[in-house]
């Protein structure tokens, strides 16, 4: 065995040891949950112990797959290291679940089935166990494949499939199913359009200006105030909705107060930071967005923990309610021990298996810098706020990934247009035969601001004695294809889209299979 083979073997061995360690720690958590539930709740039923284990497994998978959307852009922009992002997200996800997760949750997510059609508590328990297990396994598979999917859609599919298996096709609310299917298109398009629009606004108002530092000094405080309004409103509307009953107008008013305070606080800080900038560069401006991204990752994690922990503990709370109370209900109280399983499970799943999806969201789809990450985080927040007021069912996962794609596709469009501009400079340059002169002029052109580029191009056109060549629309399209740079990984677009489309039916099919299996084992 030569040195290269030994190095490869060592690398594979290290990777295997790390994977076994992660699996061992995850298994230890699940066994701990089983023992705790058996000691404290074993008097209820052994079914409760099994359900708690499935709930813990589901919570870990939510942490592994869904949390990446909150911190991935911050990691990709290098505002946060991977370790710091995991620590912040784990703390704030657990805090959101425990502090603002609520005392009561809806047992049937989104009203996907009618619980009144399943009066038998035992059948209802089997249905919920099947739904929870199916959603968890689907999330586990999606994480292994590196596809960020909606945990809400996973549990919706699981409940629908288990309900149909238990009571037939008539139990499903097909209008709600249609709305969820529509959200596969609405969510990413809304998120992508808003993120692209915000990025273009940032570019036009700051990075395309002659004096970047001066523009940043003037406009960055306004962008940060807008971000503060969005996050304060989002937190009041979504993150605290289970513990604080507040209207949208009240939440928006709170957001305005927070935005005003943030503007007053950051304006002198941004001014001082701008005064220290030695170079009029985009890199310097990017640093102004770094600290806000850290707060954004923390607040998004808190809101996510308060909302999506219900995907793990909602069915578990329903099972507990059915076993203790002997009935089925559309809502159920959450005991503290159930909420703790969800909160700790989110943190454990994120710490052990979250890095894979964080890298996918932050690095693999498209390159992200702090300004782009700011646009992604803000677009996702604004989209959820807008959709909640319009009554549109959107997935935060779909919105965030759509925002990442939107930023990437806008960059592709702008780069393609810029390459065409450079080619136009080459075609019009009067000294085009002199490579050295041409290169020097191109360097000036690349370093110029947007307004300066337009002036230089106009000067070239006025000086050029060359006869202009008119090309057809088809030829122009051909040129655009030649100069188009792919800044978004196309294979990931297809993989993620496919995963989104099959999430509900895949989880539903798995849940139906598990329901029949559980019923067969219990009845047989």
Can you give a write-up of this model?
The chain is mainly alpha-helical and 524 residues long. The chain has one domain. It has a two-stranded antiparallel sheet. The chain is built from 18 helices and 2 strands. It is 79% helix and 1% strand. About 3% of the residues have low confidence. Helix 5 runs antiparallel to helix 18 and helix 14 crosses helix 17.
Topology, element by element:
Layout: H1 3-41, H2 46-65, H3 68-76, H4 82-100, E1 104-106, H5 121-145, H6 151-167, H7 174-207, H8 212-239, H9 248-275, H10 282-287, H11 290-325, E2 331-333, H12 336-364, H13 370-390, H14 396-428, H15 435-447, H16 450-463, H17 473-483, H18 490-523
Antiparallel strand pairs: 1-2
Short summary:
This protein is mainly α. Helix content is 79%, strand content 1%.
Keywords:
single chain, 524 residues, mainly alpha, two-stranded antiparallel ribbon, 18 helices, 2 strands, elongated
Percent range for helical residues? over 70%
The tally of domains stands at 1
- The largest sheet has its strands arranged as 1-2
Count of helical regions: 18
**Based on DSSP secondary structure assignment, what is the total number of beta strands?**
2
Order of helices and strands: HHHHEHHHHHHHEHHHHHHH
* Average pLDDT: 82
Radius of gyration, in Å, reads: 27 Å
How many strands, what sense, and barrel or not for the largest sheet?
A: 2 strands, antiparallel
The SS-based structural class is mainly alpha
Shape: elongated
Low-confidence stretches: 465-472, 475-483
What is the end-to-end distance?
Answer: 56 Å
The percentage of residues in β strands lies in: under 5%
């Amino acid at each position: 065995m030569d040195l290269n083979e030994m190095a490869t073997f060592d690398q594979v061995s290290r990777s295997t040891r790390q994977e076994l360690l992660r699996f061992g720690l995850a298994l230890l958590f699940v066994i701990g949950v089983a023992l705790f539930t058996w000691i404290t709740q074993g008097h209820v039923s052994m079914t409760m112990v099994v359900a708690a284990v499935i709930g813990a497994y589901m919570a870990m998978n939510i942490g592994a797959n869904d949390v990446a959307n909150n911190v991935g852009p911050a990691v990709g922009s290098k505002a946060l290291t991977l370790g710091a992002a995991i620590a912040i997200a784990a703390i704030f996800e657990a805090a959101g679940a425990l502090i603002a997760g609520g005392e009561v949750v809806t047992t049937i997510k989104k009203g996907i089935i009618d619980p009144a059609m399943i009066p038998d508590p035992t059948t209802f328990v089997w249905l919920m166990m099947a739904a929870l297990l199916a959603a968890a396994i689907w999330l586990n598979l999606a994480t292994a494949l590196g596809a960020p999917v909606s945990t809400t859609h996973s549990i919706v599919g699981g409940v629908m499939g288990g309900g149909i298996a238990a009571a037939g096709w008539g139990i499903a609310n097909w209008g709600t199913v249609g709305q969820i299917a529509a959200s596969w298109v609405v969510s990413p398009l809304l998120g992508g359009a808003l993120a692209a629009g915000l990025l273009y606004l940032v570019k036009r108002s700051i990075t395309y200006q002659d004096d970047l530092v001066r523009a940043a000094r003037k406009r960055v405080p306004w962008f940060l105030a807008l971000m503060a309004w969005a996050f304060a409103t989002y937190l009041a509307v979504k993150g605290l909705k289970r513990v604080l009953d507040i209207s949208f107008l009240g939440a928006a008013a709170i957001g305005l107060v927070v935005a005003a305070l943030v503007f007053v606080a950051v304006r002198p800080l941004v001014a001082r930071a701008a005064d220290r900038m030695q170079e009029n560069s985009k890199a310097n401006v990017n640093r102004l967005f770094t600290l806000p991204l850290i707060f954004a990752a923390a607040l998004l994690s808190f809101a996510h923990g308060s909302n999506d922990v219900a995907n793990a503990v909602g069915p578990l709370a329903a099972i507990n309610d059915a076993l203790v109370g002997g009935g089925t209900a559309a809502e159920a109280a959450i005991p503290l021990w159930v909420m703790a399983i969800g909160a700790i499970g989110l943190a454990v799943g994120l710490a052990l298996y979250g890095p894979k999806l964080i890298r996918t969201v932050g690095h693999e789809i498209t390159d992200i810098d702090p300004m782009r990450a700011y646009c992604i985080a803000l677009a996702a927040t604004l989209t959820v706020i807008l959709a909640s007021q319009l009554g549109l069912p959107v997935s935060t996962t779909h919105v965030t990934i759509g925002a990442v794609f939107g930023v990437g596709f806008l960059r592709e469009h702008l780069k393609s247009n810029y390459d065409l501009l450079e080619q136009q400079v080459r075609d019009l340059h009067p000294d085009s035969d002199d490579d050295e002169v041409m290169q020097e002029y191109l360097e000036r052109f690349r370093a110029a601001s947007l307004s300066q580029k337009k002036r230089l191009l106009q000067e070239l056109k006025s000086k050029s004695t060359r006869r202009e060549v008119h090309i057809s629309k088809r030829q122009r399209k051909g040129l655009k294809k030649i100069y188009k740079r792919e800044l978004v990984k196309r294979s990931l677009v297809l993989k993620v889209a496919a995963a989104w489309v099959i999430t509900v039916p895949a989880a539903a099919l798995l849940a139906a299979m598990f329901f029949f299996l559980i019923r067969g084992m219990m009845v047989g």
